[in-house]
Amino acid sequence: MNKGDLINKVAEDANLSKAQATEAVNCVLDTIGNTLKDGDKVSIVGFGTFSSAHRAARVGRNPKTGAALQIAAKNVVKFKPGKELSASVN
Predict the structure, then answer these.
(1) Which pLDDT does position 49 carry in this prediction?
(2) Going by DSSP bridges, is the β-strand pair 68-71/74-81 parallel, antiparallel, or unpaired?
(3) Which CATH number do you get for residue 68?
(4) For the chain, how many structural domains are there in total?
(5) I want to staple 84 with a disulfide (CB 3.0 to 4.6 A). Which of 3, 13, 27, 46 is the partner?
(6) Helix axes 18-37, 3-13, angle to 10 degrees
(7) What are the angstrom distances between the C-alpha of 90 and each of 36, 46, 67, 78?
(8) Average confidence score pLDDT of the chain
(9) From edge to edge, which strands make up the β-sheet containing 74-81?
């Protein structure tokens, strides 16, 4: 499922227009992104928790040549699924 499919499903299930569903999905995704950017976490009970973590700079290897290269530090997004989501998948 991609973003367009998600918007169509939300519009259908919530009896919204496609424009309203697009606005709702974009608002949720923007809010999650902005919250993570601020260094906070987002917990959705039954679904899971989004958090951000800092990954330090490190030395890596080019698998083709074996040459060492520097990998820059960056922030990464983590997701830990909730019990209900994990149970629904299995």
Answers:
(1) 97
(2) unpaired
(3) 4.10.520.10
(4) 1
(5) 46
(6) 120
(7) 28, 15, 42, 21
(8) 95
(9) 42-44, 48-55, 74-81
